[in-house]
Design a protein that fits this description.
The protein is α+β, with helices and mostly antiparallel strands and 190 residues long. It is 24% helix and 23% strand. It is built from four helices and nine strands. A six-stranded mixed β-sheet has the order 1-2-3-4-5-6, with helices on both faces. Strand 3 and strand 4 form a beta hairpin. Helix 1 packs across helix 2.
């Protein structure tokens, strides 16, 4: 199966974005320690970022499980299938959250942006940064922000599904598999 990039091959994917007190860099396995610390700090609040009631991260998530997830994000980045950014403090000492740019699961969008911070009071500031950045530095025409105004989960879930599978990296962090949106987030195509 050939990889179909999420963005055109001639588009230069931003390797960094600085705005306000945030520094966005590609999420890599090398961020494991600060990422895991941030996951622990944000806790169960993250279960509403990717769906109204998600199971990720599960209680007791391990460092090894987080490493697998980071490797998957890194592999998707390298193949231009999706782009996950770690959000670092201005001095780069702490992970403040993440921003995920994924192929759209809903019709009428070409990208979905999901994000979280370790401090809920910073979510709005990071969302404003992401919205401006996506509007000015990325080629997307219609970015959806699932679960965020003006499309709270109750509205987002009623939108029609995009009826095509897109390549993503499988749980092994190496295989390219086709996914099709038929549940919150991306579900394996049948």
């Amino acid at each position: 199966m050939a990889d179909a990039p999420f963005v055109a091959t001639d588009f230069v994917v931003p390797a960094e974005h600085r705005a306000r007190n945030f520094l966005l860099r590609p999420l890599r396995a090398s961020h494991l320690d600060v990422d895991f610390e941030a996951l622990q700090k944000a806790g169960s609040r993250l279960r509403t970022v990717f769906a109204p009631n998600d199971s990720w991260p599960r209680d007791g998530i391990t460092l090894d499980e987080d490493l697998e997830d980071l490797r998957r994000h890194e592999a998707e980045w390298e193949r231009r299938l999706a782009f996950a950014y770690t959000v670092l403090s201005a001095d780069e000492s702490r992970c403040l959250g993440c921003v995920y740019l994924n192929p759209a699961t809903k019709l009428g969008h070409d990208c979905e942006c999901l994000l979280w911070t370790t401090d809920a009071t910073q979510d709005g500031a990071l969302e404003a940064v992401a919205r401006e950045w996506l509007a000015t530095a990325w080629p997307f025409r219609a970015v959806g922000f699932p679960g965020r105004p003006p499309t709270p989960w109750s509205v987002w879930e009623k939108l029609p599904w995009r009826d095509e599978a897109v390549p993503r990296i499988g749980a092994d962090a190496a295989s390219v598999v086709l996914y099709n949106a038929r549940a919150c987030g991306l579900a394996l195509a049948e």
